Amino acid sequence: MSTASVYDDLVGQEHIVEVLRRAVAATRSGEESQEMTHAWVFTGPPGSGRSSAAMAFAQALVCPKDGCASCNACRSVLNGAHPDVETIRTEGLSIKIDEVRELLARVAWAPSMGGWRVVVMEDADRLTESAANALLKAIEEPGNRTVWLLCAPTLHDVLPTIRSRCRHLQLVTPSTAAVAQVLQNRDGISAQMADFAARVSQGHIGRARYLANNESVRNTRTTIMKLPLTLKGISSAFAAAQSLVDLATDQANISAEERNQSEIDDLSLAYGKGATGRGMATGASKAIKELEKEQKTRSTRMVRDGLDAALLDIATFYRDVMMVQAGAHDALINKELENQITTYAAATKPHTTINKINAIMDARTNLGHNAAPLLTIEALMCVLAR
User: Fold this and answer.
1) Residue 124 exposed, middle or buried by CB count within 10 Å (0-12, 13-18, 19+)
2) Is the pTM of this model over 0.70?
3) SUPFAM superfamilies, alphabetically (predicted)?
């Protein structure tokens, strides 16, 4: 029986695992080596596991057994409880300079447990320019035992001066077969469901697992995938846009509602709500207002992320149409819609299909630049309805 490892969840990333293993081994030898460096940037498409790779590396660096996945150090890294590992992830639209300054103050100390102080930044592409410049200074003059692990979709999403000081690791999208195998072996999902989830998630293992385990999520996706078939003119385009934004907003609200109230209750309790005496401590109302502001920003981000995921799904419809138009019926992502896709493909021209895919990608870019969601989706649906 093979031994468990922190790298077990990195599906299809054998080339990355080998580099990380060699880096950890180099830190143990005590000799100067090119294998290890103080700053790394992990890039790869959504679902490739760039943050999982960074977390696995962080675990291996602080683990006495080079990443056994079962010791206290490995588990505490994942739980966010290890004193020498900082994980920075944002649920807002950006990482601001104040957050980076606080982080730099925390990581200035030497490791408390004698190994490494590791910083994992999951959304390095969301650093504001001033925050990125503050981070640059820390990476230019690193602490003796500090390692920076930055994650971003592409290298171009990271400030050039930062990426020039980091070692770059490019993750790849795992194959459908590899993702399906993992879902069957680790999650006990049936072969048929694993194949469907792996196929429609396009190698995004987290999304594949989520789809396979949630019927409501699968139903929502089915609704989204049928939207292109409803586009017959301007009025249907506006209706489809409203449906899509409503779906994304409802999903974000469901996810946020319970969590938001729980966070406010916890903060109120920390300020003394419910205790005997005069009530909550000074500054409570200001802290609660700040929290509510953060929650609103997070909710905005969740709606945009939901819309982005929906647009990626819709893009697979037109991608399949293009495959049928090219005569490649065997390579469909949405096999369940093969009849509708074939009919649609016969009624349209290949250059029109390409234009529609480009329009979807442009809409995703505009959403990423904080364009108004409903207007962006309405404009897109009008293009798709042509």
Assistant:
1) buried
2) yes
3) P-loop containing nucleoside triphosphate hydrolases (SSF52540)
